[in-house]
Design goal:
Elements (H helix, E strand, L loop, with lengths): L1 H10 L10 E7 L7 E6 L3 E8 L2 E8 L8 E2 H9 L10 H18 L1 H23 L13
Antiparallel strand pairs: 1-2, 2-3, 3-4, 4-5
Helix pairs in contact: 2-3, 2-4
Length: 146
């Protein structure tokens, strides 16, 4: 949890301006050197910071969504910029992106825009999978020669 909190304090203090975001959930475990998660949300957007095996990750979802529908920060940035990312690990470039584009991001997560944003994010998730593994997820067929 220390790694998550230190990153938020040093790079994402903008979340607390005007009391826009609040902490709504947290978990800590001793496995893998201290895995943890911290969930913050505004009236529109929920963000889940995760420390998994020493790496920081960030996923987002609309407050109105169920708990299983999370989208990684690399997909969010690709949705807005159109540029594929090489990593989904949370770093300074992602915190700067969030700071600079928070209004636009929240605008994509409001109920009236979410259906279209969700469909675009699902397409980007599929495209990322295809680019990483060279095939479309769920449509793999066995090699005829195997």
């Amino acid at each position: 949890m220390h790694q998550i909190l230190a990153f938020i304090v040093s790079r994402m203090a903008f979340l607390w301006e005007s009391a826009k975001f609040k902490i709504v959930d947290s978990e800590v475990s001793v496995s893998n050197g201290g895995d943890a998660l911290l969930v913050v949300e505004s009236k529109v957007l929920r963000m889940r910071f995760v420390r998994d095996r020493g790496q920081l990750l960030l996923d987002l979802q609309p407050v109105s969504a169920s708990g299983v529908e999370w989208y990684s920060i690399d997909l969010i940035r690709r949705l807005l910029t159109g540029v594929p990312e090489t990593s989904s690990l949370l770093d300074e470039s992602y915190s700067d992106f969030l700071c600079d584009h928070m209004s636009e991001i929240e605008g994509r997560f409001v109920p009236g825009a979410w259906s279209e944003s969700r469909a675009s994010l699902e397409r980007l998730k599929e495209l990322r999978f295809r680019q990483m593994f060279g095939r479309v997820h769920g449509t793999e067929t066995p090699d005829a020669n195997s």
